[in-house]
Amino acid sequence: MAIKHFLQFNDLNADELAHIFDRTRWIKEQFKAYQQYWPLTDRTLVMIFEKASTRTRLSFEAGMQQLGGSAIYLNTRDSQLGRGEPVEDAAQVISRMSDIVMIRTFEQEIIERFAANSRVPVVNGLTNEYHPCQILADIFTYIEHHGSIKGKTVAWIGDSNNVCNTWLQAAEVLDFNVHVSTPPGYEVEPERANLYGTDHYEEFTDPMEAARGADLVTTDVWTSMGFEAENEERRRDFHDWQVDADMMRIAGKDALFMHCLPAHRGEEVTADVIDGPQSVVWDEAENRLHTQKALMEYLLLGKVQA
Ligand code: CP
Ligand code: NVA
Fold it and tell me: Where does L-ornithine bind (predicted)?
């Protein structure tokens, strides 16, 4: 099998995603029943982190161990990666000693260059532009609660960041709609909107209108990692882009609330919403584990049948 990477959400097509979601369901059931499943015995995952993480590190490291393999953590502080070793050289060396690599970094270009020089699959664990593993877990979570996401409407409230961009990509692949509302000046970049086509994406100046009748309301921090210098300005600019109980009422009582976490209660979401009955944020976080196990299985072994 040719090397398959997961650098952007649309690296997987609808058929591959359906397979991964099926496998996720089965792998999750085995895990919950304490059944051993070790298809990746002796395989090694290298995880490279240039930014902080709780969920991504935990879910990849625990996930690889639960599949019978092992995981090695590298960061820029303690490796040569932070001392100017070219990413192409790092990719050659790291991919000769491992079976799969997960990278969390800044520009998407860095992970693309790594992948171009890698002998093994490379997975995007978050870049400034995309967070495909997050949306894999989010869509699986949606399916678990409400069935297929096809034709449904997701309301994105807040910053047009990596998570938002990935929702827009996913909408194209899986045929659902995204209503985006950002403060002025923080809109989805036009070239990205063109890239994703216009069929599945609509922009709203009023966040309430974006949320009206939505099947899922979701948001993220006002300031993403790497943009901390803009923190004060963003707190002012994003003040009215908060998911609160009124917004969830406008969406409707069956609408779900999601947040990739970590969250700031009182900023992008109120405590009563994130801790309330429509919120599925803990399922969402847990499903990072199960979906990524299915993803690693697929990238390393292809379409395993149950
Ligand atoms: N949602 C997410 O990727 O969380 P971490 O930053 O903790 O990995
Ligand atoms: N948009 C956030 C997501 C964190 C998981 C960030 O990039 O910091």
Answer: 162, 220, 224-225
Is 259 one of the catalytic residues? no
From the number of C-beta atoms within 10 Å of its C-beta (0-12, 13-18, 19+), residue 184 rates as exposed
Q: Which residues line the annotated binding site?
A: 53-56, 80, 104, 131-134, 162, 220, 224-225, 260-261, 288
**CATH code of the domain in which 48 resides:** 3.40.50.1370
At 82 the pLDDT is 84
The pLDDT of residue 251: 98
- Distance, in Å, from the CA atom of 201 to the CA atom of 169, rounded to the nearest integer, reads 10
Residue nearest to atom 1 of ligand 1 (CA): 260
**Ligand 1: does its nearest atom lie under 6 Å from the Cβ of 58?**
no
| pTM for this entry | 0.97
* Sequence ranges of the binding site for carbamoyl phosphate: 53-56, 80, 104, 131-134, 260-261, 288
Based on the domain organization, do 171 and 76 belong to the same domain? no
Same domain, 31 and 97: yes
Burial of 21 (0-12, 13-18, 19+ CB in 10 A): middle
Q: Is the pLDDT of residue 73 over 80?
A: yes
